[in-house]
Design brief:
The protein is of the alpha+beta class. It is built from one helix and six strands.
Amino acid sequence: MKRACYPMKKLTFLPLIVLTLALAGCTSDYIITTKYGDILQAHGEPDTDRSNGMTSYTGMNGDYHLINTNDISSVVKK
């Protein structure tokens, strides 16, 4: 005898799949170009702290970095 709740199991996983795909696509990569010609890649939007003049970003390998905001010539969403 088949169980009547089998279709409900499929519907249970649908929101989990949609949520996973939505969260995976939320973070964009950014390209930071410095005045010295260096090109840096950031995972997620860089944050600028006006109180100390530094910009923080997470590198593509997950490391946290700080750079002087005055040294940045452009930040472009990839």
